[in-house]
Write a structure and sequence with these properties.
The complex is a heterodimer.
Chain A (H helix, E strand, L loop, with lengths): L3 E4 L5 E4 L1 H19 L6 H12 L20 H6 L13 H10 L6 E3 L6 H4 L3 H14 L4 E5 L16 H6 L3 H28 L4 E7 L4 H17 L3 E6 L12 E2 L2 E2 L5 H11 L3 E3 L10 H18 L23 H15 L5
Parallel strand pairs in A: 3-4, 4-5, 5-6, 6-9
Antiparallel strand pairs in A: 1-2, 7-8
Chain B lengths: L1 H4 L3 H12 L9 H11 L13 H12 L4 H10 L1
The chains are: A alpha/beta, B mainly alpha.
Chain lengths: ~350, ~80
């Protein structure tokens, strides 16, 4: 068989022999199995990946009847913002951008978020975002979520009130660093609850916590406690999308319901998100740029398959720039993106993307 | 159904298909659904004069699927 034209994890084109492709798939699956303590891909799943990556077509799709719904983070910014959000900077409103996603791009759901897409900067602008959500709820038919990142790092100096734990750790002030993290988590939680409850007031269908735990285990805790509070006091649907495949132990001893959060892999993150009461979980598996697209997809699918198997709630795997087997490139090549998406649906059995 | 009722995909598709009296396979058939959405008046992506749009279409969806949609309930509260 001739060589297979495919991609590397940075988006560059590469040709591989079928043997090289198969070897990459097996190696990546074993890497995920070893790190995450999950089962590796079975032979028939390896064969399916070979079929997906050997398909001669530029773009591929799932089998008819296997279609899944999509949720998307930072929607309006994709059209309205600049390169900082991989945006096209169209001179249109955020509301118009969301309507374009519904009636031109045929998306299944959509979210609105503040242009500086974190809860902290969104908080002072919440009344503006409330009326934007109200308007969208009146003019669209698909579910409208409000989205933002917990982004707990914004609560540290120079952006926020608390000393950056990374600075304190450098001085071996471990306990002081942990104290600052817990104070930041508390304030982050207050801001998230404030904003989300305002969105519940105007009838938003849900909240998307995007890039959760980017500042580590305390960031994850703040989000879980926020979800718990919102599920007790509102009817909001809640999606929790992660920032990485592994919870960084910036604090190291933070626990939720008796479980240490540092070091959790996707299937264990799921259990925490389920326990908090969230409705949809978005696992992330990071892309390695110096490995092939097949290697990255095989690794991502190995993790996400186990998440789907263990889950009691819908799983919307993160598949986009630099995650879910997709190349780390601002405009991910559609050949690689479509193969990652198909693999997530046909092998991992995700409920959505 | 996923976002507010925690339904996994097969269950969610079955629920909606049963309520609309079509098969789960039909839900992803754009030809079937284009016609069905017009017949049920639950919103289209094209702008067709006289058909329900936005919140009006959503209100009909809430009734058809027998689900609660917060924005629809808020509107009803404002109208009463």
């Amino acid at each position: 068989m001739s060589k297979i034209w495919t991609r590397m994890g940075d988006g560059q084109a590469v040709e591989m022999t079928p043997d090289e492709l198969r070897q990459d798939i097996i190696e990546a699956s074993e890497d995920a199995a070893d790190k995450g303590k999950v089962p590796p891909l079975e032979e028939r799943e390896i064969e399916k990946l070979m079929e997906i990556f050997s398909a001669p077509w530029r773009v591929i799709g799932v089998e008819p009847g296997h279609e899944v719904p999509l949720t998307k983070d930072e929607t309006a910014c994709t059209l309205v913002s600049s390169q900082l959000s991989s945006g096209a900077h169209l001179p249109i409103s955020r509301e118009a951008a969301v309507e374009v996603f519904e009636r031109v791009f045929a998306f299944d759901t959509m979210e609105l978020g503040w242009i500086d897409y974190s809860f902290k900067p969104a908080k002072p602008m919440v009344s503006l975002d409330q009326v934007a959500i109200e308007r969208l709820l009146a003019t669209t038919v698909f579910p409208i979520l409000y989205g933002a990142m917990p982004n707990m790092g914004l609560y540290y100096t120079p952006d926020g009130p608390y000393t950056n734990p990374a600075d304190l750790l450098g001085m071996m002030k471990v306990e002081e660093a942990r104290e600052e993290e817990m104070k930041a988590a508390e304030l982050c939680m207050e801001d998230m609850i404030f904003v989300c409850k305002r969105m519940a007031e105007v009838g938003a269908d849900g909240i998307d916590f995007d890039t959760t735990a980017s500042a580590g285990d305390a960031d994850f805790l703040a989000t879980l406690k926020t979800v718990e509070e919102l599920k007790k006091t509102t009817d909001l649907g809640i999606e929790v999308g992660m920032s990485g495949e592994f919870i960084l132990g910036m604090h190291g001893e933070v626990e939720y319901k008796g479980k240490r959060l540092a070091g959790l892999w996707p299937q264990d993150q799921l259990k925490m998100v389920e326990a908090a009461g969230a409705d949809i979980f978005g696992p992330v598996v990071n892309t390695k740029t110096n490995k092939s697209a097949a290697w990255n997809v095989a690794r991502a699918v190995t993790f996400v398959k186990e998440v789907c198997k263990q889950s009691t709630i819908p799983i919307h795997a993160n598949v986009g720039m630099g995650v879910g087997g997709t190349p780390m490139f601002e405009t991910p090549p559609v050949d690689a993106l479509s193969r990652a998406s198909v693999a997530m649906v046909e092998i991992a059995k995700v409920d959505g993307l | 159904m996923q976002l507010n009722y925690r339904m996994r995909l097969p269950e969610a598709k079955k629920y909606v298909a049963d309520k609309l009296h079509v098969s789960a396979f039909d839900l992803s058939d754009s030809t079937v659904m284009r016609n069905l959405r017009e017949e049920l008046d639950i919103g289209l992506i094209e702008a067709v004069p006289g058909l329900s749009k936005g919140l009006a279409a959503k209100s009909r969806i809430a009734d058809l699927l027998d689900i609660k949609i917060a924005a629809v309930d808020i509107l009803k509260g404002q109208m009463s």
